[in-house]
């Protein structure tokens, strides 16, 4: 090793000196020493304010600095020719050598010359802080500690905020570990002699104390970590000394208690001397610990930097666990208790983990009793911490407290943790499940419970625990998610949750003596728990809503899953028919029980010769189908048949025969019931209606999962629908079920056609069926029953999606005859339905404030249904099935119904912009025009600018403007088109009073002002020129109030042109804006003359270039984007942009400028605008009485974020502080002279 070789060099030099031969380089070293102070000596100091200088002891020979550590006496770093590490910092950073060897080499050098060795150690800490400077020998001897640190601060690299402890990457992560290990090994190797020389430790502690008080974060962070690890190592030494002291004391007592004749006086003197020496060492170690604790920890545990506070708390936890006799008392525990209220989750997390290490040892609990009583409420409240990691550790700590003392937690404390088993965050729920298991479901005396179960005739002793689980589930009134409860307990209570035999016994057998009968609610809850445990065992992954999805199972987990699946299959193959037989009349229980077969290993039926149990299961399912008409029960039966009919299992034929027999019977009954109902007509009684409806519900449920086209259910369903339309007296439920069953039939016919090679006759027949059904659904939109209309609307939207132009994609051109495109009439009817049934007024204010839960649930269900209706229609717009201008009636409701449908409308807007930016912009301006037209009949052409409806339109326009984003190059043509349509609309109708009066729609220009900021500087002038063509000389000179919209709009186009340089970003840099550079002003890539030539070309009226060529010209992007920061901010982060393509096209700029002319300039005269036909004229509706309401106050997406408290629920966080500790409560923030503040630009999205 290099250090070993260098040490051997020093030894050889000493040998040469003893022989009278001068060593090489000796003259150089002596000259360096003489220049730096020569023979002057200083008194040794142990105060923190000054590094200890060399002592007055004479030394025979000093090892040269350059030879010892590869460093010149001046402090500059040298490297050998091979590039090997030659400094202590480099050796520790690379970590190629064992720390023990590194420390041993340093100790050897310390024994040769402790001044130079300590100088190397000092520079090691300086370099570990990221400082480029080095402490020289003359600085070490002549300068105060504060002066040296100030000098190092001046040599610190201020351009970078990174330093070794904060730099990411595996190299620096390893360095941090090596750094901590080096300090620990150093103290361990020096624990028997060097640390007691009153020189090395005093010098290091003095240096670290000074650095820890520095204003430079790197110095403070690195020195605090070093000091805390140094303290940990010293505590270990103190613990060893304490053990040796106890041993020496016992030996001394044993020897002294001997009789005088057998007592060895020399041994007594040696033991007495040893005890005295150990006591002196103990006192010295305690002085070191007090210096570090009071000089560094007490100040840094409340540092402004969270990482520093976390280091302190983590290490004090180590001290208390390692040396509990000295540190596990209220004098030290109070710091951990206070820091439980820290603002940063990282620090709170360290506190909890430190406490966990203490509560894990039950022998330490008596010493923690006072702390537990004082800070228990705070720890329990932290189970609701906003930081999930903190909450999880808090729950685990509460569980440890429960293990140590059953009486430490009150019932209220436990209830605060119980409900967390239903949390969507799985680690938190699992931790709460462990707490719940420890409190309620752990066996106190397993042997006694097993004996009691045998006396009662039970196979398992878990009966009482399962009953308690059911009671807990039922008492959780706010939570009804059994799957979440099972998942929370799965890791700690698998033995209980997989005891399906015991659960089945509780359901099937009569209670024994001493057992209570399960109530109906308890039986339902137990069945639900059984199904959830079966699902968890068979699928081996958390329920929906917990976790990021299915993960790959390990081999052990896969084996466990297979074993569990075989176990549950073998048990429930026999038990399930009995359970269905007992509960076949109860729909809720049957629906849950019928979910069990989907988790079976169906090969067991044939492999285990259990066909008789399969026949029993099919028989019970048939009874259930015949007795029930509830949708969930019938769907469960249908799904069970579908699973049992899987082709890969040999039981398919047996199940298929049973299914066909059942459907034959239901079809026959349905056909006869339909004939009877249609013959009776208006005279049909309730029995006729019930027979049709019950059989139709069963067939519809089965048609959803099974292909029943060979039974031709569509014919009878269509007859029912036609009769209902013609007679107008068809019951609502029959019409809904007939529509749904017909829909399934059409989809199954499409499946059969796509799987084979259909003929033209087959396609023609299916097209006739689809056309007739679409016509029926369209007629049902005008039905008096709301359920029928909603069902017809949803089926229309679904079928138009399925049979749209996308049907022929993927080499399916043969299906083109099945494509249906809705005509204008159907589109208008669908849009009218949405407007009448989705955007309806809410009467929440008129409802009573009693807070009826059932009424609230109905409101939520109704809102969910309306959202589905809107989403179904929006999909037709997104997939270009309905014309995009129809979306104008949707977009205009954004502000009023943002809380209910805002996400759907925004997603629709985003997708339509991706389809066609220009048509989307036309749709946006059309929606604003519709709102404007609704106001004109009430307020006239002179709108009240302060009224709520006008303010609402302007706010909506502002929101629409935000959706165009920051990249004005991409949206240039769309924004220009929007302004064009807005100007034409404003001047479309002249005032009948004469030309001296403003046009009727002139006030719309005030709304259009919201989009002016999205125009490029050149486009603003172009749009202004286009606006001028509509103005006469008299209009341009008018200044009355009625002309204010025109004045405002003109000003928005004429002013702020230079602001574009602050808001435009090019192509790939459009996602984030850049901040102003503090090192220089941005370059200007365009001259003013070139800009004027470009702008002049825009207003030429001779060219008729298509508008689509507008985007072919790339404008020079600016160099920076302005980001407004509050005045209190100190600095800003510099982000540079180098748009290379901004300069590439400058030489040929004039050639491209000729393509930048808009076709709509000069084409339309004001008098021709009245004759212009717009594409979306069919969608303009003048809906009287639909004046916009006041814009609801709501949190906008581009508003400032709300800073919340770190707790979900706070409970007076600082009320438990004692008065004697008030002097250390105040957070001691360091000076902000060298604090670097970074800000990131926040993108405002709509």
TrEMBL record:
Residues 1076-1087 have a biased composition (Basic residues). One of its GO terms (cellular component) is chromatin. Residues 35-55, 1060-1088 are annotated as: Disordered. One of its GO terms (biological process) is chromosome segregation. Keywords: Cell cycle, Cell division, Chromosome, Chromosome partition, Coiled coil, Nucleus. It is found in: Nucleus; Chromosome; Chromosome, Centromere. Residues 297-382 form the SCD domain. The keyword Mitochondrion does not apply. One of its GO terms (molecular function) is chromatin binding. Belongs to the SCC3 family. Part of the cohesin complex which is composed of a heterodimer between a SMC1 protein (SMC1A or SMC1B) and SMC3, which are attached via their hinge domain, and RAD21 which link them at their heads, and one STAG protein. Component of cohesin complex, a complex required for the cohesion of sister chromatids after DNA replication. The cohesin complex apparently forms a large proteinaceous ring within which sister chromatids can be trapped. At anaphase, the complex is cleaved and dissociates from chromatin, allowing sister chromatids to segregate. This is Cohesin subunit SA. It comes from Electrophorus electricus. The gene is stag1a.
């Amino acid at each position: 090793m290099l250090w070993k070789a260098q040490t051997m060099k020093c030894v050889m030099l000493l040998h040469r000196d003893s022989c009278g031969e001068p060593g090489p380089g000796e003259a150089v070293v002596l000259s360096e020493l003489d220049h730096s102070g020569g023979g002057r000596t200083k008194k040794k100091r142990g105060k923190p304010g000054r590094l200890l200088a060399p002592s007055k002891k004479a030394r025979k020979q000093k090892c040269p600095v350059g030879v010892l550590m590869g460093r010149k006496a001046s402090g500059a770093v040298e490297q050998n020719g091979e590039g090997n590490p030659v400094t202590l910092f480099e050796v520790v950073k690379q970590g190629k050598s064992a720390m023990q060897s590194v420390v041993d080499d340093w100790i050897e050098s310390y024994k040769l010359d402790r001044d130079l060795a300590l100088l190397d150690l000092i520079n090691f800490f300086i370099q570990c802080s990221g400082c480029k400077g080095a402490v020289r020998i003359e600085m070490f001897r002549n300068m105060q500690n504060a002066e040296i640190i100030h000098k190092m601060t001046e040599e610190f690299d201020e351009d970078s905020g990174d330093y070794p402890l904060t730099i990411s990457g595996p190299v620096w992560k390893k360095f941090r570990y090596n750094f901590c290990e080096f300090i620990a090994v150093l103290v361990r190797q020096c624990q028997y002699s060097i640390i007691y020389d009153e020189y090395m430790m005093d010098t290091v502690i003095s240096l670290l104390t000074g650095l820890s008080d520095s204003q430079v974060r790197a110095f403070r962070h690195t020195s605090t970590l070093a000091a805390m690890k140094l303290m940990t190592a010293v505590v270990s030494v103190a613990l060893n000394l304490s053990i040796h002291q106890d041993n020496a004391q016992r030996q001394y007592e044993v020897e002294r208690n001997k009789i005088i004749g057998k007592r060895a006086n020399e041994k007594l003197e040696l033991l007495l001397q040893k005890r005295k020496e150990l006591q002196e060492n103990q006192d010295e170690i305690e002085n070191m610990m007090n210096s570090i604790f009071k000089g560094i920890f007490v100040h840094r545990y409340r540092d402004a930097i969270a990482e520093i506070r976390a280091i302190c708390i983590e290490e004090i936890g180590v001290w208390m666990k390692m040396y509990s006799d000295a540190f596990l008392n209220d004098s030290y525990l109070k710091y951990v208790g206070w820091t439980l209220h820290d603002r940063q989750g990282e620090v709170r997390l360290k506190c909890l983990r430190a406490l966990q290490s203490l509560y894990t040892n039950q022998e330490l609990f008596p010493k923690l009793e006072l702390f537990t009583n004082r800070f228990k409420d705070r720890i329990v409240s932290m189970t609701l911490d906003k930081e999930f990691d903190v909450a999880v550790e808090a729950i685990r700590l509460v569980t440890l407290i429960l293990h140590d003392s059953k009486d430490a937690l009150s019932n209220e404390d436990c209830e605060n943790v119980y409900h967390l088993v239903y949390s969507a965050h799985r680690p938190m729920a699992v931790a709460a499940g462990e707490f719940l298991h420890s409190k309620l479901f752990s066996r106190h005396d397993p042997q006694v419970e097993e004996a009691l179960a045998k006396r009662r005739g039970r196979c398992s002793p878990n009966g009482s625990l399962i009953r308690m689980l059911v009671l807990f589930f039922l008492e959780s009134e706010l939570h009804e998610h059994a799957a979440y409860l099972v998942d929370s307990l799965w890791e700690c209570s698998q033995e209980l949750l997989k005891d399906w035999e015991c659960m089945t016994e509780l359901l099937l057998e009569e209670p024994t003596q001493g057992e209570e009968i399960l109530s109906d609610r308890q039986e339902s809850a137990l069945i639900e728990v059984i199904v959830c445990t079966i699902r968890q065992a068979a699928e081996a992954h958390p329920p929906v809503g917990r976790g990021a999805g299915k993960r790959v199972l390990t081999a052990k987990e896969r084996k466990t899953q297979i074993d569990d699946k075989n176990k549950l299959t073998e048990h429930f193959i026999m038990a399930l028919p009995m359970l269905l037989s007992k509960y076949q009349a109860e729909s809720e229980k049957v629906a849950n029980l019928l979910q069990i077969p989907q988790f079976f290993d169906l090969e067991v039926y044939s492999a285990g010769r259990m066909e008789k149990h399969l026949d029993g299961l099919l028989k019970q399912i048939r009874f259930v189908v015949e007795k029930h008409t509830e949708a969930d029960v019938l769907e469960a039966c249908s799904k069970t048949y579908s699973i049992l009919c899987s082709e890969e299992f040999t039981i398919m034929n047996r199940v298929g025969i049973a299914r066909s027999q059942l459907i034959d019977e239901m079809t026959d009954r349905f056909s006869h019931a339909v004939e009877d109902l249609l013959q009776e007509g208006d005279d049909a009684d309730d029995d006729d209606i019930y027979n049709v409806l019950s059989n139709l519900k069963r067939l519809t449920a089965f048609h959803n999962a099974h292909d029943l086209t060979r039974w031709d259910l569509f014919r009878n369903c269509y007859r029912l629908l036609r009769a209902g339309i013609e007679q107008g007296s068809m019951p609502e439920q029959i019409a809904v079920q007939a529509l749904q069953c017909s829909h399934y039939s059409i989809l199954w016919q499409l499946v059969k056609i796509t799987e084979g090679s259909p003929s033209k006759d087959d396609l023609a027949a299916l097209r006739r069926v689809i056309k007739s059904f679409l016509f029926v659904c369209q007629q049902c939109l005008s039905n008096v029953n709301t359920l029928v209309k909603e069902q017809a609307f949803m089926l229309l939207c679904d079928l138009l999606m399925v049979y749209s132009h996308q049907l022929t994609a993927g080499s399916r051109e043969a299906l083109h005859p099945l494509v249906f495109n809705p005509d204008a009439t159907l589109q208008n009817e669908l849009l009218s339905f949405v407007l009448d049934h989705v955007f309806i007024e809410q009467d929440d204010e008129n409802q009573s404030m009693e807070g009826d839960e059932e009424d609230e649930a109905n409101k939520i269900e109704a809102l969910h249904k309306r959202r589905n209706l809107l989403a179904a229609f929006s999909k037709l717009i997104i997939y270009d099935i309905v014309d995009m201008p129809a979306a104008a009636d949707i977009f205009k409701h954004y502000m009023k119904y943002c809380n209910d449908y805002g996400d759907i409308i925004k997603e629709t807007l985003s997708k339509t912009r991706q389809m066609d930016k220009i048509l989307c912009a036309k749709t946006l301006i059309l929606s604003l025009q519709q709102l404007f037209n609704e106001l004109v009949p009430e307020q006239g052409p002179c709108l009240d600018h302060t009224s709520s409806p006008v303010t609402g339109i302007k706010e909506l326009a502002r929101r629409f403007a935000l959706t165009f984003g920051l990249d004005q190059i991409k949206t240039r043509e769309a924004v220009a088109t929007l302004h064009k349509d807005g100007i034409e609309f404003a001047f479309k109708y002249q005032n009948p009073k004469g030309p001296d009066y403003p046009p009727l729609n002139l006030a719309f220009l005030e709304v259009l002002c919201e989009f002016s900021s999205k125009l490029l500087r050149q486009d603003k002038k172009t749009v202004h020129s286009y606006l001028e063509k509509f103005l006469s000389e008299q209009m341009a000179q008018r200044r009355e109030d009625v002309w204010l919209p025109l004045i405002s709009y003109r000003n928005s186009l004429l002013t702020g042109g230079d602001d574009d340089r602050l808001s435009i970003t090019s192509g790939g840099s459009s996602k984030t804006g850049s901040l102003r550079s503090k090192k220089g002003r941005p370059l200007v890539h365009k001259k003013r003359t070139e800009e004027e030539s470009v702008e002049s070309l825009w207003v030429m009226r001779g060219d008729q270039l298509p508008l689509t060529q507008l985007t072919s010209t790339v404008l020079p992007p600016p160099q920076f984007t302005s980001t407004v920061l509050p005045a209190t901010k100190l600095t800003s982060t510099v982000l540079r942009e180098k748009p290379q393509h901004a300069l590439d096209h400058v030489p040929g700029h004039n050639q491209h400028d000729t393509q930048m002319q808009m076709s709509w300039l000069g084409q339309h005269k004001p008098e021709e605008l009245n004759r212009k036909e717009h594409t979306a004229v069919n969608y303009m509706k003048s809906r009287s009485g639909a004046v916009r309401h006041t814009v609801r106050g709501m949190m906008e997406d581009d508003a400032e974020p709300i800073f919340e408290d770190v707790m979900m629920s706070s409970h007076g966080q600082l009320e438990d502080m004692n008065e004697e500790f008030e002097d250390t409560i105040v957070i001691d923030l360091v000076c902000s002279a060298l604090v670097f503040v970074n800000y990131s630009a926040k993108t405002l999205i709509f």
